[in-house]
Design a protein that fits this description.
Elements (H helix, E strand, L loop, with lengths): L8 E10 L12 E11 L2 E7 H4 L8 E11 L1 E7 L13 H14 L4 H17 L2 E7 L4 H13 L3 E5 L1 E2 L12 H15 L6 E6 L7 H13 L4 E6 L3 H10 L6 H7 L7 E5 L5 H10 L2 E4 L1 H6 L7 H6 L4 E3 L11 H14 L6 H7 L2 H7 L16 E4 L5 H6 L6 H11 L5 E6 L2 E5 L6
Parallel strand pairs: 1-4, 5-6, 6-7, 7-9, 8-9, 9-10, 10-11, 11-12, 12-13
Antiparallel strand pairs: 1-2, 2-3, 4-14, 14-15, 15-16
Bound molecules: guanine and zinc ion (ZN).
The site of zinc ion has 6 residues, from strand 5.
Keywords: Hydrolase, Metal-binding, Zinc
EC number: 3.5.4.3
Protein name: Guanine deaminase
């Protein structure tokens, strides 16, 4: 039997843009192939480069022609709430009332496995149509909802990081776990899902106000027992929340110190928001190697405040962009990038579009320690990528009539774009979304 070296190879021709390495100057350190070739096999990237100079070594390669379209690594959304999918755009409140009036009643529906399993499919469909291929996700307090989400992601061979929310006080009693059940359920979920296929577990205390000291203590023990699991929580999002934490935990130096005291601030820990930090908190995050999820649409929608990206980066704290659906208002990482730009404008800084793109691809992967798998198109990485059409409507056709730099393409997509720009999304080399509309 003759061996055919082309078996399983698949090529994609497009404008290709990614960051091959970790960098502190993404503005300059991107790789761009105006006429590029991506080759994949068995769910992995095996080549990324210029089309014309390299196509001859792949005689008769099965090529998908996306010429003129933009091929990027799949987006990474580093903070979102799966059970809040159905409550986007809930009117009028800031964080604490919003949680009471909308969030807790909605999350209660996820006690029902069948309901959660159906919603997991909706949630993943929304991610894929927006070009997001990996996410770090809060489920509800119910173990069965986390099972449902992991099952749905496993079906698509997706790299998903997720965890059961833990909360044992200051929320409705019908939605509370306990230190014991939080520990038992989280441990069982770790044993079932962590490291299975591309799935990762995330220990998930909702935030300091809804966890007792006893609960944070058992979660800290669990984190020590399983050093490769991620951790996620919320931090300094809203002034009333911060005052509440101070009254609940009067002995602690600051909000972050509550988590730090229980061993929950470390590499692989991602804190959502971190808007109103004290000097010591910036330092503590930096010393521990923890990361921040910057959620601009949520911070504006809930009136929480303006994240200080420049300050985080001065402290060398990894920052990742995130939607925070459903406090956030869109599944689109492009829109999220556009809103991040506006938040930085109000802070007196200009967010370079390449910098922003880095925070939702390679920069996020580096912060999570996953850059061997996701965030880039390097040979050996998983073939998770998205094809965008910069000319997806009448307006963008006008906007891009003349030659455009990759910076300009990304910037205008971040301000004008959303899921209408997505042509196709691939996970581990397989299409998980293809637009119905013809993109020519
Ligand atoms: N703080 C505690 N829970 C939540 C939540 O669900 N969303 C946001 N944005 N902040 C929180
Ligand atoms: Zn959140």
């Amino acid at each position: 039997v003759q061996h055919n070296p082309l078996i399983g190879l698949k090529g994609y021709r497009a404008k290709i843009l990614h960051f091959a390495k970790a960098t502190t100057s993404p503005k300059d350190d991107y790789c761009y192939f105006e006429d590029g070739l991506l080759v994949t096999r068995d769910g992995k990237v095996i080549f990324t480069g210029d089309y014309k100079n390299n196509i001859n070594q792949y005689d008769k390669l099965d090529i998908q022609d996306y010429s003129g379209k933009l091929l990027l690594p799949g987006f990474i959304d580093s903070h979102m709430h799966f059970p809040q999918t159905e409550m986007l755009a809930s009117f009028g409140e800031q964080l604490l009332d919003w949680l009471t009036d909308y969030t807790f009643p909605t999350e209660n529906k996820f006690a029902d496995y069948t309901y959660a399993r159906a919603m997991a499919d909706v949630f993943l469909r929304q991610l894929y149509r927006h070009g997001t291929t990996s996410a770090m996700v809060y489920s509800s307090v119910h173990k069965c909802a986390a099972d449902a989400l992991f099952e749905a992601a496993q079906k698509h061979n997706m790299l998903l990081m997720a965890g059961k929310v833990c909360m044992d006080r200051n929320c409705p009693d019908w939605l509370q776990d306990s230190p014991q059940t939080a520990q038992r359920d989280s441990a069982e979920l770790i044993k079932t899902w962590h490291g299975k296929d591309r799935l990762h577990y995330v220990i998930t205390p909702r935030f300091a106000p809804t966890s007792s000291e006893a609960q944070l203590a058992v979660l800290g023990e669990l984190a020590q027992q399983y050093p490769s699991v991620f951790i996620q929580s919320h931090l300094s999002e809203n002034h009333n929340e911060i005052a509440w934490v101070k009254s609940l935990y009067p002995k602690h130096k600051h909000y972050l110190d509550v988590y730090d005291h229980f061993g929950l601030v470390r590499q692989g820990a991602v804190f959502g928001h971190a808007i109103h930090l004290e000097k010591d908190e910036w330092q503590c995050l930096a010393e521990r190697g923890a990361s921040i999820a910057f959620c601009p649409t949520s911070n504006l929608f809930l009136g929480s405040g303006l994240f200080n990206l420049a300050q985080a980066e001065q402290h060398n704290i990894p920052v990742m962009l995130a939607t925070d659906v459903g406090g956030g208002t869109s599944f689109s990482m492009l829109k999220t990038l556009g809103e991040a730009y506006k938040v930085c404008q109000l802070r007196g800084n200009q967010l370079d579009p390449m910098h922003g793109l880095y925070l939702m691809t390679q920069g996020a992967a580096v912060g999570l320690g996953l850059e061997q798998q996701i965030g880039n198109l390097n040979p050996g990485s998983d073939a998770d990528f998205v094809i965008l059409d910069p000319l997806f409507d009448e307006l963008t056709e006008l906007r891009f009539k003349h030659h455009n730099s990759p910076q300009d393409l990304i910037f205008a997509l971040s301000i004008l774009g959303d899921d209408r720009a997505t042509v196709a999304t691939y996970i581990a080399g397989k299409p998980v979304y293809q637009a119905a509309r013809q993109h020519n």
